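[SOLVED] Need 3D model of a two-part complex

Original post:
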Amino acid sequence: VLDTDQLVTGLRRHEPGALEELYDRFGGAVYALAMRMTRDAATAEEISLDAFMQVWEQAERFNADHGSLQSWLFTIVRSRTIDRLRAVHAAKRTHVEDATPAHEPARPEEAAEASQRRQLVRRAMAELSHAQRTALELAYYEGLSHAQIAERLGEPLGTVKGRIRQAMITLRRLLAPAVLTSR
Amino acid sequence: MTHEDLYDDLPLLALGTLDPDERRALEQHLASGCARCQDELKNWHAVVGLLPLAADEADAPDLKPRLLQRLRPAARSAKVIPLRRSWVLPLATAAVLLLAIGTIREVRVQHTMAEQGAELAGMRAKLQAAELNFQRAAVSLADKEKNVAELRTALAAAQGALGVLQSPGLQLVHLTQTPDAQPAEAHALLSPDAQRALFYAFDLPPVAAGKAYELWWITEKEGPVRAGVFLADQNRLARLDSTIPAGVGAIQAAAVTIEPAAGVAKPTGPMVLLGKV
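Solution:
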C-alpha cells in the first residue's frame, strides 16, 4: 500500500501500478460522483476514465499545497462533468436502472477508512436543511451559479447565496476531522 | 468589498458558484498575497473535496480494466467494449466513418500507386532512351576511332610518301601498257637512298578471280625482283608502297604482270605495264 506521496511519485513516473492504486482508492467515488452529476452510466464511465487519464498524464502538475490528491481528482471530474453538461445543455437525465453494486477498495483498511469517511459526509449532509442541501447540490452537482440556482428555485439571489454559504460552514464544522486529513 | 466580505466568499469560491466579477475580485485578493485567505481557501477546498462521498454509491465493473487498457494504446483498438444502447448509434457512426476513411485512404493509395507507376514507366522510357543514346554514342565513338586509325594509317603513308618525295636522287619511271594489253598507265617514284618506292597506276581493268597484279623491278644483277602484289579499286586506280632491295644493282625498268593472287617469285603471267628508268 502506497502512501499519498509515493502514489503521486508513482503517477509522475507513469507507473501503471500507481494508476491502479489510484483507481482502487477513488474509482468508486469518482464514478459515483460522475454518475450523480450526469445520471448516465456511459457518460459517467467516459468522464471517469478521462479524469483518471488526466491525472496520469498531468501528475506533475499536482500541488499538495493546494489540496489533497482526492480533492484534485474530484475537481477534475466535476469540471469535466460540468463542461459536458453545459455543452449538451439538453442532456438526457435518464436514470440508469442497471447501476451495479458499489465498488469497494480491495484492501480492508482502506475500505474501512473510506466507508467511515463516506458515512461522515452523509451524516453531515443529512444535518443540512432540505433547502440548504438542495441549493448546495444544484451548485455542486450541476455546476449552477447563484443566479441560476435562484432562478431554478424561484428565490432571491441573496437568499440562495446565504443559504449555500451557511451550508458550507455547517459542513466544515461537521467534517472537521476529515478536512484536517484531507489537506 | 471589505476584506471580511472577501473572506466570507471563500467557501463559495471553492464551490465554484461565484459570479465572474466576484470570483475575479477574490482571486486578485488571493494573488496579492493574503496568507490568511489562502490558508482558509485550502480548508474550503478540502470540504468541497469531500462532497462527492455523499453521492449514492455506484460502480462500473469493467471500468478498471478499461482504464488500464488505455495505458496500452496499441492494444486499445482491439479491446472489446460492451455495447450499451446509448453507444450503438455513436459506434455505428464511428464504424461508417472508419469505413469511409479506409475507402478514401484506399483510393488515395491506389491513386498514389498509379501516379508512381506512371512515373516509373516514364523513368523506364527515359532509361531506355538513354541506353539507346549511349549505344549510338558508342557506335559513333567506334566509327570515329576507326576513322582516326584510318587517318593515322593514311597520315603514316603520306608521311612515308613525303619522305620518298623529299629524298635526294629521286627517279621517276613512267609505265605504259604493253602492245597486247588494255590501255593503262602508271608512275613509279624510286628513292635508292631511302630504298623505297611509290607506285601509282591508272585505268587498270579488274583481273579474274584468284589473280592479282604484281609489280617487278627489272634489276641489273638479278633481273626481275618482286616489288609487291596489288589490285585496282573500283575506279581502276591502284597504289603500292614498296621497297628497293639492296645488292641487286641498278634498276633498269619497272613492269606489271598478272599473276596468282598470292604472288610469285618470278613473272609467269602476261605483262600489262612496262617503263624504263
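Edit: DSSP finds seven helices and eight strands in chain B.
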